[in-house]
Each structure stands twice: as C-alpha cells, then as structure tokens.
Amino acid sequence: MKRDEKGKTRVYRKLNIDDDTKVSVRPRQGRSSGKREAARASSKKDSQGTVDIPPDEDFEFHPDFDDIDLLDTDGYGPDMGSGTYGDDGLGGERIEKRSRRRSVPDESKGSRRTSTRQKKRLNADGDVIDNLFDTPESELEDDDTYMDFSDAGKTKEERKAGRKRRRSQNREILAVTYVFAGLFVLMIGYFVYFNGFVAQDVISSPYNVRVNSFADTIVRGDIISSDGITLAETITDENGEETRYYPLGRIFAHAVGTSEINQSGLELSNNFYMLQSNSNPLYNVINDLRGIKNQGDQVITTLNASLQEAAYNALGNNDGAVVAIEPSTGRVLAMVSKPDYDPNTLVSDYESIISGEGEDVLLNKATSGRFVPGSIFKTFTSLAYIRSGADYDSYSYTCQGRINLGGDEYITCFDGNVHGDEDFYDSFAYSCNASFGNIGLGLSKSLFRDTCNSLFFNTDLPTSIPHVKSNFDLDDDASDWLTAATAIGQGETTVTPLHMAMIASAIANGGNLMEPYMTDAVQTSSGDNVRRFMPESYGSIMTTSEAELLTEMMTDVVDYGTATSLSGYGYTVAGKTGTAEVDGRGDNSWFIGFAPVEQPQIAICVLVENDEGYYESALPVANAVLSNYLNQ
Questions:
Q1: Are 148 and 154 in contact (CB under 8 A)?
Q2: Which of 232, 507, 526 is CA-nearest to residue 386?
Q3: For helices 480-487 and 433-442, what crossing angle results, to 10°?
Q4: What angle do CA 26, 29, 30 make, to 5 degrees?
C-alpha cells in the first residue's frame, strides 16, 4: 500500500504480463486520464516483469507495438499480432487476428528469405470466409503481381482469366469513351465550319422566307447593272409607303424578277443582301432609336444593260430566249425570255395572268424552259464520235437528201437538200441530217449516253442560278430510227438555253467550264464593297484538243456553212445552227457560238420559237447581240 499526496491509502496488485492471464478492461472514465494512469503503471514495471495496477483506476493493455502492422487492414482496424483480441469497443463480434511470418535475414546464405503472409476475408458480420495466401515475391509472375479479395480460393488460371476479363472490359469502356470524345470533337468542328463557311449561304438562301421580316427595319436595296444602270429600286412616298420600281420594266422582267408576288430572279437570289445594311453602324443605331429605317445594301449584277436591251429588241415579237456568257469568267452578260410581263404592274395583273392562257409569261425560258435542240445537238454527237476512236479524218458519206432506216422510215435533210459527197467537217458545216444519222447508227449507245451525261444531261448544271435539267434518253434496244433521230437532235432529247450557252462557253474556253453567275458584288448604299463574288471553275468537261477540233468545225459553219450571214462584221465567229421540229407548232430556230474565235469574249445561245421553218431566224438575233457587245 502507498499513500498518495492527499493522504489517501491505495492498494496495488501486481500483474505478470508473461502469465497467460486475461485482463478484464473496464470502461475508461476519461480518455486522457486513462492514458496517464497507463503510462504511470508502465513506468512501475519491475525487473521480474510485474506491474503495479491500481485496483480502482482504469487500465488499458497494450501489447508489444513491434508486432502491430498499421498498414495491414481487413476492414476492422490494424492487425494486432498473434493471439486474440477482445471486444472491439463497438459491440461487434470477436474476430481472429491474422498471424504472419516475417522475413528474417539468413546470415548463413547472405540473403533474405521471403515469407508468405496469411490473409483472411471477412463477411459483413466479421466472420472468416476464406484464407488467402500470397505467393512469395520471388515466385510471382508478371501477371500475378496484383490480387484482390475477389480472387480468394481461385486457382492461378482462374485469377488470370478474371484479370484478363477485367482488362477487356476496361478496353471496351475506353473505346466507347474515345468514340464519344471523337464525336464531340467532330460536332464542335462542324459548328466552327458551319459558322465560318456555310451559315451565310444558308441564311441568304432564297428559300429562307424569314429574311423578309428584315423589311420591317430595312429599306430594300437597289439592283445595279454592270454598266451602272439602276434595274430595281425602292421609292418611299411622303406617307412612308414603299413601292418597288423597275426603271427598264419588261427588258429585265425575268432576269431581275420581282420582290413581291411571284418573287423570282435576282430579287429572290439576293433577297438577304438587299435587306441588310452595312453602312455606318453608328448612323444605323441612331436611325433605329429614332424609328427610321436604314437603307439596305445594293447588289451589282453581271448583266450588261446595253447588251440586255439589244437582245430584247432583237427578239422582237418572237417568243424565245437569249443567254450570253463571258467564257473566261462565267459572268452572265444578258438573259432575256419572251413572252414577258411588266414587273411594275405584276401585282395588279397577276390574277389575270395565271387565269388566262398566257401564264407562260412568268416562266423564264432561258433557265426553266426545255426545248427540242435540233441540229445544235450535233455538237454532242460529234464529240461522241471523236471519243469513239474512229478515224474521223477519213470519214466520208454521200448524201442523197435522206437516209432510209428500214421500210418507210426515213430521216431527211432540211428542205430536202442533197449534199453529195461529204467528209466529217462538211457534214457538220452543212448540218447534214442523213450523214449524222449514219454517224449515230455507228456509235455505241453506252458511249453516246456517257458523253451526254458528262456534259450535264439528266443532272443539275454547275451553277447557283435556278434551272431545270436537260434530258437525254437512248436505250440499248432503241430502234434505228430513234437512234438516228437522237443523233440529229430530235427524238426524246430536250435542253435549256442556259445549258447550251454553257457548252458553247466551255468550247470557247478550251474545254474548261466556268460556272455561270449573275451577282458581281454587294455594296453599301454609299458604294463601299461588302462582298465580291469571284469566278469559279468547274473544271474541264472536254480535253483541249477536243475543244480545238469543235472550234474548227464551228468556224467552218460560219465560213461556208449554214451561218455565213454572221461573217464579214469585223470579228470572227464560231457557231452551230439548228432547226427543231415541234409537233403541233412551228419549228424552233437555234444558234450557239462565240466570238471572236481567236480570243473569245462572249458565248451565246439564241432560241426563236415558231419560226415557221426558217432556220436563220436566230442568226439576226445572235448578230445583234455579238455586234453590240464587241463594239462597245
């Protein structure tokens, strides 16, 4: 017994820690006080291994800390060495501790023995499920270095299969992740591309009717010809009422179109630009605040007002169309269609037009009218013959005014003309139907189709100008009559004047086709450039040698063939005439060509409907257009 500082007597009993004595541990009254008393008790351990334990104080037993593995846990706390460990303090069941054998140096061998360590897997109640033994590190293979409790009780092969399966699953997850990441990058890339290169065209599309709502704050801009003539403008009266006015009226009815009812032409294709204002931003903001409309941008077209008027007047009272193109750029210089209408009175005349028999006045025949081509189609037949590999320089034929195709079926030359002995060039210059019917019969139908399809039959033309497709149809089992008729431009073939002008332009440009366009620039109302439209090449639709050969043949047509009336005007012309028979109507007269031959500046297509069988009806129109442009 000992007396403490306050005079109280305390009884101590000794405990030998080497004895196999179980110590009952009472709950501690205080964490800090229990530690101090345990430390005090530990300090009183005597040399025989006994410790004085105060009977009335808390006691906390600690085994040798050298046997504690603080990092080896199995869900309930550190491994507390060998033996048993009692109540966990949380009311849980007693659990067995792990036993292990440590690696100790082997002094005799100068190495370190590698031991195994027993692990136990517990369920949720703390009961042992199975034992798991690690393989010594020296015996581990590369794929045995990882092991978790899910591999307990499995063979090495099973563990390997499990790990392989998990790695496979990880690869699948990574693959899916990469796919979605790639799709996300592509989506962002498309948004950037759309905003940078496509959005403007989508917004300015003539089919975007929402653009018309811009008219609430913008006064529609003007349309100006390439030679500075106003073709369309908006006039505002003193009451603020706006009226669209077309100074040249019918002359540009189809090319310029209208902005209100039956919106068409340049008014439709440039709708977006004319309802935007890129003038001084500060000035525009001030107008917006004052409730005043801003003046829209103006459109500068490729159309030449002088040339357009010449073509319009040359057609006179005839129905038909004229298309003129600059071969080196694709700029449309003139586009006329008849019958026509007055765009200034179209709103009031519209009901009577569509209810009457003259509704075709609203049709732009230059781009949307399909017609039987007649002999101008011999240009395509000639190209197919050249591509067939035939010795065209040695070709000869004796024309008797017609060719018999069996029985009572004949194809005759125009007006029953007998051309006699002809070579390939003369057959083209004189436009001999009998000779070209003979050439068509000798052509492979598949080659014929391929040639025509390569020149934009049965497909859209490479241009932003609205148009319809030209048609060519010749089956392998077609009769001789249909084959010969197709070769001379009859049969089931139909074309648009725009298409024919493009072919003439490509021949003039050495086989390279420039895409036709009608808008040159967009400017502010004060004349500052907002956007310029540059020429674009579609590419070669025929070789240079093919274009040169066709040019030579078309020059013969003017020099001594069917278009001699175009010679002698101070410039050379290459071209091809044509007369198309139309059931129930008069013949259609055609001309396609270009000038000057040495350095082409203009390519042209002229169609005159119902010419009563006289094929030269198109030639005076072509002459007026060519002379006006080349003499400007």
A1: no
A2: 507
A3: 120
A4: 125
- d(C-alpha 440, C-alpha 385), whole Å: 8
pLDDT more than 70, % of the chain: 73
| Confidence band, pLDDT 50/70/90 cuts, at residue 47 | very low
Would you call 480 exposed, middle or buried from its count of C-beta atoms within 10 A (0-12, 13-18, 19+)? middle
Element spanning 454, H or E: helix 445-454
CA 343 to chain centre: 37
∠ CA 435-438-440, nearest 5°, is 110
Residue closest to 494 by CA, chosen among 582, 556, 408, 610: 582
DSSP string, 11-74: --EEEETTS------PPPS-HHHHHHHHHHHHHT--TTSEEEE-TTS-------GGG-EEEEES
Angle between helices 305-315 and 618-630 (to 10 degrees): 160
**Contact present, 375 and 578 (Cβ < 8 Å):** yes
Q: What dihedral do alpha carbons 156, 158, 164, 168 form, nearest 10°? A: -170
- Does the pLDDT value for residue 44 go beyond 60? no
Q: Is the distance from CB of 230 to CB of 303 less than 8 angstroms?
A: no
603, 554 contact by CB (below 8 A): no
pLDDT bucket at 115, cuts 50 / 70 / 90:
very low
Q: How do strand 111-112 and strand 105-106 relate by DSSP bridges?
A: antiparallel
Angle between helices 378-387 and 544-559 (to 10 degrees): 140
Q: Which residues contact 412 (CB under 8 A, 6 or more apart)?
A: 401, 402, 433, 434
Rounded average pLDDT over 595-602 = 98
* Cβ atoms of 41 and 62 closer than 8 Å: no
Residue 250 CB burial class (10 angstroms; 0-12, 13-18, ≥19): middle
Per the CB < 8 A criterion, the answer to whether 576 and 593 are in contact is: yes
The answer to whether 544 and 510 have CB atoms below 8 angstroms apart is yes
Q: Which residue has the tokens 């089919």?
A: 207
Distance CA 602, CA 592 (A): 11
C-alpha distances (whole Å) from 288 to each of 64, 167, 453 are 89, 65, 53
Record the tokens describing residue 481, joined without a space: 């009559």
- Do the Cβ atoms of 214 and 220 come closer than 8 Å? no
Give the span between the Cα atoms of 439 and 434, in whole angstroms.
9
Alpha-carbon gap, residue 109 to 111, rounded angstroms? 5
Is residue 495 over pLDDT 50? yes
Q: Specify the amino acid at residue 622.
A: A
Place of tokens 């410039």: 571
**Residue pLDDT, tens place only, 207-238:** 676 777 788 889 999 999 999 999 999 999 88
pLDDT at 156 over 80: no
Q: Which is nearest to 383 in space by CA: 460, 457, 332?
A: 457
Q: For residue 90, give the nearest of 126, 37, 48, 64 by alpha carbon.
A: 126
Cβ atoms < 10 Å from Cβ of 282 = 8
**pLDDT at residue 130 above 90?**
no
Paired with 235 in beta bridges are 243
> Higher pLDDT residue, 162 or 267?
267
